[in-house]
Write a structure and sequence with these properties.
By secondary structure, the chain is mainly alpha-helical. The strands form three sheets. A three-stranded antiparallel β-sheet has the order 3-4-5, with helices on one face. The chain has a two-stranded antiparallel sheet with strand order 1-2. β3 and β4 form a beta hairpin.
């Protein structure tokens, strides 16, 4: 019996090792797509690059929009290690049929992307192949436990085509929210497209202060990073599955509120010190502008911590503790 168990374990390790080798060959060795080509000797040459190279280049584009992707595998490994005691208790029941079918779908995605030279199909194939491997080797019980880690792993792939589709609605929402709030507190503000014009004057130039809500200030730049933070919160600090879904549903709201605070800071800084100091010039952000950008994440962490406290009964504990303190003081 022991020999059979050892044989099964050794066979499983060999299968996992072979799967890792196949994955590395597909993503690190096989040329996949040429994209827009590369410049060699002042000529544009179209040659297939491996997907890991596409990954690296996409992390650099758009001002490093997706550079947080470097840390995603580390975060997944760290979270698994922190919850390893609970995870390793789950019984291994391989879902062979479902696993093989999903693996075949992943290979199909990969092949379609290779033939059409579409790197995003290759990225999607990687995510599907990981799902198939989990089911094939470990089963549905493990996947349910690892679901949010699998979702977090999906943040590693730079889905850059989503930026344009999501940024425009966020820009409009940010302009309307900021202008509406300013008019509510007595500051004349007019929204025009993705720009915000106010009646307040720059103390340096004496010109009306205008704020352009670009992709960064719309919440787009922080949305995906905040989604990653939200998954970490959901996985570590929230117990019930439905609460995790609710927390993740609040991520876009948190991103908008965080950038709303950022816009108010930029307006306030412009009123006090002028737009050059508060915002910057020649498309270069000032130090104050960068500080306002960091406030997005401060606000987000505070809001998500508050939501987690409400979900997990932290607010009730706070109220109970406060009542206990009050009663103790009154008795004294």
């Amino acid at each position: 019996m022991k020999n059979k168990k050892k044989l099964s374990i050794s066979g499983g390790m060999v299968a996992i090792l072979m799967s890792v080798i196949v994955f590395l060959a597909m993503y690190a060795l096989l040329g996949y797509s040429s994209g827009y080509g590369v410049v060699i000797d002042d000529r544009v040459v179209f040659q297939r690059q491996v997907l890991f190279e596409h990954l690296r280049l996409d992390y650099k584009r758009d001002g490093g929009e997706w550079s947080f992707g470097y840390f995603v595998p580390i975060a997944v490994a760290a979270l698994f290690w922190l919850r390893r005691v609970d995870i390793l208790k789950i019984e291994i029941k391989p879902a062979n049929v479902a696993g093989i079918l999903i693996l075949l779908a992943g290979f199909l995605f990969y092949w379609v992307g290779y033939r059409g030279e579409q790197k995003y199909f290759g990225y999607a194939a990687g995510q599907v192949l990981v799902l198939g491997a989990i089911l094939w080797f470990l089963g549905w019980g493990w996947f349910r436990k690892l679901f949010w880690l699998w979702v977090l792993l999906g943040m590693m792939w730079p889905w850059r085509f989503l930026i344009g589709r999501i940024s425009a609605p966020l820009q409009m929402a940010m302009v309307k929210l900021t202008s509406g709030f300013m008019n509510l507190i007595g500051v004349d503000a007019v929204a025009s497209g993705s720009s915000l014009s106010t009646a307040s004057l720059d103390p340096v130039t004496s010109l009306p202060i205008s704020l352009d809500v670009d992709v960064a200030c719309s919440g787009m730049r922080s949305l995906f990073a905040l989604a990653m933070i939200g998954i970490v919160f959901a996985f570590l600090r929230v117990k019930d599955e439905w609460k995790r879904w609710v927390l993740m549903a609040f991520v876009p709201v948190v991103a908008i509120l965080g950038n709303f605070v950022r816009m108010l800071m930029l307006y306030g800084g412009s009123v006090v010190w002028g737009t050059k100091i508060a915002i910057g010039e020649n498309h270069e952000m000032s130090a104050f502008h960068m500080l306002a950008g960091l406030m997005v994440f401060v606000v987000a962490l505070i809001l998500m911590s508050g939501l987690v406290a409400i979900f997990e009964g932290g607010w009730k504990k706070f109220v109970t503790r406060r009542k206990t303190v009050v009663r103790t003081v009154e008795s004294v």
